[in-house]
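agent> Task received from the user: take the single chain below, predict its 3D structure, and emit structure tokens. No templates, no multimer pairing.
agent> Plan: (1) validate residues, (2) run structure prediction, (3) serialize to tokens, (4) report one or two observations.
agent> Step 1 OK, no nonstandard residues flagged.
tool_call: predict_structure(input=
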Amino acid sequence: MALLLMLLLAACNQAVTDEVSLEDDDSGIPVEIIPEFPQDVVSRAGAVSFTQITEFYVSAMSGAASKGKNVRYYLENGVWKKEGLITWPSGTKTISFWGLSQKFLNGDGFSDVKLTKSVQSFRFTIDPDNPRDISYASRLNVTYDQVGGQVILSFLHALAYPYFTCAQGLADALVEIKEVKFHNLDLSGVFTYSTTFNSSGSWVLDKQNYGTFTQTFDDPVVLTNDGKAIPLTDAWQLLPQKPTKWATTAANPVTIEQADALHQCYVELKCKIVKEGGVYAWGHPKGMGEEYESVYIPFGTTFNTKAYNKAIKLNFTGGYLADGTPFVGRTDVVLAPWVTNDILIDPWEEMPEEDLEFK
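)
tool_result: status=success, residues=359
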């Protein structure tokens, strides 16, 4: 009987100890979050200009225990405020933080959201008609004493933000572009936060969901034969990727229909080409037929997450028709096929417009 009482007493003491331990796991000290944002490129026509972040959301875990999910931080009169509370665990227990520019939940382009001790990830699908930015940050495995209660979250842009300039290599023509389309770009992929490095992560594309990005100009972009690169597009918000280039050649034509079936990437330029003397090698004068006609160009340049500070320059020297054969203009005007070596990615530099030349 005495032995039984001792066992019961020991069990009670153990339960009390566990309960106290759980309560003691939370120090009750609020976490102070300090966000940092990159110095973005704000520049002339074509270059990306990011809207200032005025709110973000933070989730945190200590071990397998959630310390808060989607705690909203918002900017009010120049001061960051919060809706919700994250507190430090007690003692030397570590805590990890993940920041996002929208709620870490399914919806609004997000799906398959995971937030566990071992993996933090989400699938994101871009809407080409309504693209938007994603910014993320993380700070891993810190204690109160290590950071003095203040956690700096350094936000980064999660997407690629390329924009394009264009020059043309035709010696005696003027090219007028009304619309530019990039076909067969990946629209969805899974982003996974790094479990090792702060504010780091990687994309794995689904390779199942493809779309077209389009920009139509109210005032057509005019390329003259002086060799200068002209801004062709605004910055686009794309998943980081290396598209599979349309594999057409003069010797082995691949049609646009085949390229679409194989998800091969190409640029479609709705344009007209006017030779000296007013001869229309492509397109027509207003009221005399289809004013702008399509020329198709194979494309396979990599878009990465640092593309927002680079311009991708294109040199227009012709292209292909929808049947995959080289473009030949009217009146026996023959234009060279697209020269893929003329696709360059150069660091963006603030230079006078007269110095911005394709080389």
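agent> Step 4: summary for the user.
Confidence is low (pLDDT under 50) at residues 1-24, 332-359.
agent> Done.
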